[in-house]
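Now for a specimen:

…
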Amino acid sequence: MQPTVGHPIPLYLRGQLASPTMSLMKNEGTIGLRLGRLLTAFLTAVVVLIPNTAFASQDLATVTFNGAGWGHGIGMTQFGALGMAREGKPYDEILRYFYQGSSVSTLGEGGVPAPANIFVNLEPGNGYSARPQEISLIAMDLITSQTPPGTVPVDFVVARGEENWLVAVDGSIKVTRNSANVCDLVIKDAGGNVTTSDTGGGCGFLLTWDGFEAIPTRKVGIPGCSLTDYTTGSLEPCEYARGQLHIEEAVTGLNLVLEINIDDYVLGISEMPYFWGDEGQGGLEALKVQAVAARSWAFERALSIDPTAQACDCQLYDEPVSQRYVGWGHQGSITSWIAAVEATKSQVVTHPEAPTFTVVPAFYSSSSGGATEDKEDVWGGTRLPYLVSVPDPWSLDDQINYKSKASWSESWSGAGALSILQANAVNDFAGWDTLTSMVVSQINTSGSASRVLATGLKDGVVVTDEVNASWIKKIFGLNSVYFRVNEPYGGAADPPVFDDTDGSVHETNIEWAAAQGITLGCNPPSNTSFCPDQIVTRGQMAAFLKRALDLPAATTDYFTDDNGSIFEGDINALASAGITSGCDGGSSFCPDDAVTRGEMAAFLKRAFGLATSSVDYFTDDDDSMFEQDINGLRLAEITLGCNPPTNDNFCPDDPVTRGQMATFLHRAVDG
């Protein structure tokens, strides 16, 4: 086995497994700390509160998804990096922009692990199909313009345990798995003559040549295998010159795994067009960004995953489920890519809160819809400060994002769309006769779709179902979740202007709530009204608070009476944060009940951690279970009372309106 490069801290190594105690993902902290995000409207996700109005019953003739961008939108976008590079931004500045609060560090310095070997599974299908029972390889020579004259290719060695065999130039190797842990080996020369036939042995083989040298003289190919080189779009043969190969027994067959140094691995990445770095293209700094991001993502995986504990015997795959690795199969402007990789040798993105020895899992995608995503909006879990939404106008510039992804549109008939919905979610849409409406009902920080509300008719009765936008993207084969349905996609929305708030005492606070993205309005999709006098339900209250506090999604379903409610996720988030225990102290939340002023006081006191007052401010709450919460609100000057100018009453049993809710939240956030 080729020894790995030394490193100052433990790293998972094949056959030499260390067991470092990985630090857990750091929690974002108290709810109060999240309030800082409210200072910038762009950083706050948006919820659309659906009013209780009648839905249209006319059949939907066409379902058109209008969108922008290509990919998940988390972290760096490649066209964003190209746009910034053409503006003269250096690669490290571009990386710090897309991975907020990060630094560009060098492996082996400042407590960051040194470069080391990683393990890449090369079998087609990755972990999603049965493993082959047979692996065939060709051992070729490799003479390039860099090879010194007169160089003789080194021996190509196949080893199993203590035995080893040589393979001639253009000779073949075939390993066949006959039964559990029993494999036959056949080696032939270039003429097809058998030189080795060893049967009945184990299924663990190591194939070595000079793959860890700067200029290898041998390479190995997989007959009949080709990979798409993303830089040219062409199919290239599966050939590998760097590293060494392992053939290992898998549960259902055999694994073919490349062991390679992290820097050599990056040389084989095919994720960004290499010609961007050519003279006159202005994208060499973008290639450097790609090199560092690819190295960071792969090395963070290598630090986190023990290959011997994986069914694939690997930490990465060579396909897009990890990132496209093509080995020696490069074409096009390879010199620009080599220059970018060499210029950033051993560099990775780091952040003090990244849990894996500060190395950032540097996710990237092709382009966004004008702003990258907050990671938790798309994939849930804890907010990561280095994977937050930032403006990405370059992705919307069709002169930069030239692959027709700056904007796109996909259409189906209403009946066709309903058929797709029913085929992929039989229980949700079973028995629907027609689809009468589809609308994006909730959006993320970036402006991308989060939830889609479908309305239809079933046996003459109006039915609705709200589904995840990522699921819609998958079943309709859309480029991204940066879309709207039957209306133009405009990216991250500007704060709406309402036509029904003029003259309201709450107008200023409503405008504040809209600017913070706490709500878009009450009449989607136009959202021209706020409905300031409409009563707030407990479900709507949960949505207001979850968005205002930027609460993380919950993993527990706390209540039984909110199943199917569009506010179920918001309600569970409140319960997880300890802001509510329900409406009966048990398994119910009563999402459709009106929020009383007393209940509102309790919600806000818990949410914002307000102090308890020893002063009894009001005369009409003495018998209320919320008296202490009400006094806490008065102490914080979130409320003065309900009967100005005297204000000796609070009216704890009166319902709260949407306008009042905006005012209460604004005062609470501003302290």
